[in-house]
Design brief:
This protein is mostly helical and 459 residues long. 83% of the residues lie in helices and 0% in strands. Helix 2 (13-42) packs parallel to helix 9 (166-190), helix 4 (60-86) packs parallel to helix 12 (272-308) and helix 7 (147-156) crosses helix 10 (194-217). The two termini are 27 Å apart.
């Protein structure tokens, strides 16, 4: 019965996508609360809010790298599982999931050891000053001790969603995020632990989420089960997981790279004030891009299943539906950001200097948000259909090829505002290039196949 219920080759495409996308979007938004709530609370620490917030911002690139490694396994293995399920090969789907889990454990252990050994020079390289380093160091030390929890909860949750259990996947992050929301004020203010309390609350919450994921994937309700017999790595399978997962990995890695370049450049041109402003803007970006990721992730299992089942017409319907909702949502957020920038900044900090410099920076940064959302949606199509090379290329193009160099070059003429302008330019070029390439190389060929096959036909 469960197999029939989660057969995405049947029923309405919008209904199939929304059944996954709504809980996954909620889960993505809730997941952002881990870091955003920390920043909101620390932005109100008496006497040191500005430095604590900036110190936490310096750690964002490291957190992005850890999330990137989780995505390497989750976004690589998840779509492969969907394609295998569409072909009716659940045995191979379980082997993919088992290999992804083993990779997560190995990468998590290596990452923890690496950053703990080199955290001081890395944090200074990433934009810390003598004033903000103690805050960054306190947060990062505790956070790194929970790396395995973070990677398991993030990296294995896609294997719940890809089976069609969107609500269960939502609960993975909801449980942890709600716990984090409760523990943060207790540890930060009541126990007077400050930045260390924020990190400890996050680690405990992610640990609970990790237990939830593992209990489901080894329990009776799952269609695909995490089995000891599937944990042994196999070279060809690992290669397929990594090849497809590199898109999500590079997206996080290039985000980390750009954040490092931004922090270092802003430290030179504007000091801790502008690093703090960028921390606020990045927090807003994380919140408002999450529905796009949720919709994209919700459509991938449906696309992948129908692609594996050789139903091009349903794949094309999935692409059209996800892109339409993406455009509508992005337009709404853009209007909010342009109309109420001061209110958005006040969520994190009420310092008048931060607001005065932050409002124009925010408007420039989000001025072309629509194009960035199109890139996320288009890359989601590439990943969902197993087209690793295109997904990787566009991950690198916007951030590493366009954004990072412009972040260094434009401030020569524009000062600190050049850093925010570089982001807007990269959104325009990267978004157009990625979405148009997806249209001409994926959507149009699939539409021609669908016309040849006829309504509801298979090829």
């Amino acid at each position: 019965m469960a197999r029939d219920e989660h057969d995405f080759s049947q029923g309405s495409i919008p209904r199939n996508i929304m059944a996954l996308a709504v809980p996954m979007t909620a889960a993505q938004l809730v997941n952002v609360l881990y870091s955003v709530v920390d920043r909101i609370y620390l932005g109100r620490l008496p006497g040191s809010s500005h430095l604590a917030l900036t110190g936490l911002g310096v750690t964002i690139p490291i957190v992005s790298i850890i999330m990137g490694l989780a995505n390497l396994c989750g976004t690589g293995g998840g779509p492969l599982c969907s394609i295998c399920r569409g072909r009716g090969d659940n045995e191979e789907a379980e082997r993919v999931m088992g290999n992804a889990f083993t990779l997560l454990l190995i990468l998590g252990a290596v990452t923890t050891a690496f950053f703990l050994a080199l955290k001081e020079p890395i944090l200074y390289l990433f934009g810390a000053s003598d004033a903000t380093f103690p805050y960054a160091d306190d947060y990062m030390t505790i956070y790194l001790l929970g790396t395995l929890f973070v990677m398991i909860s993030l990296g294995m949750n896609p294997f719940i969603n890809t089976q069609g259990f969107g609500k269960t996947g939502m609960m993975t992050v909801t449980i942890g995020a709600v716990l984090n929301l409760v523990l943060d004020p207790v540890f930060i203010f009541l126990l007077d632990m400050g930045v260390q309390g924020a990190a400890l609350a996050t680690v405990i919450s992610q640990g609970v989420s990790a237990v939830w994921v593992l209990r489901f994937l080894t329990g009776r309700r799952a269609i695909l089960h995490l089995r000891l017999s599937c944990l042994r790595l196999q070279a060809g399978r690992v290669k397929r997981i990594i090849s497809l997962g590199l898109s999500g990995f590079f997206m996080n890695m290039t985000n980390s790279l750009v954040q490092v370049v931004c922090n270092a450049t802003l430290q030179s041109w504007g000091g801790d004030l502008y690093v703090g402003i960028m921390t606020i803007i990045n927090s807003l970006r994380e919140v408002f891009i999450m529905p796009v990721h949720g919709l994209t992730n919700g459509s991938q299992p449906v696309m992948g299943f129908n692609y594996g089942a050789k139903k091009p017409d349903r794949v094309c319907q999935s692409i059209r539906f996800s892109f339409s909702l993406t455009v509508i949502y992005a337009a709404v957020f853009w209007a909010i950001a342009m109309a109420f920038p001061q209110l958005l900044i006040l969520i994190f900090n009420d310092d008048q200097e931060v607001i005065a410099h932050g409002v124009p920076a925010l408007r420039v940064y989000f001025g072309l948000f629509l194009f960035m959302s199109l890139q996320v949606a288009a890359q989601g199509v590439f990943v969902g259909l197993g087209r690793a090379k295109q997904a990787i290329f566009f991950s690198l193009l916007r951030k590493a090829v366009i954004n990072a160099p412009l972040t260094v070059i434009l401030p020569v003429w524009m000062g600190s505002m050049g850093v925010f302008t570089a982001e807007a330019v990269s959104q325009l070029i990267g978004g157009l290039a990625c979405s148009l390439t997806m249209y001409y190389t994926v959507y149009r060929p699939l539409r021609r196949e669908a016309q040849l096959a006829g309504p509801g036909g298979r090829l």
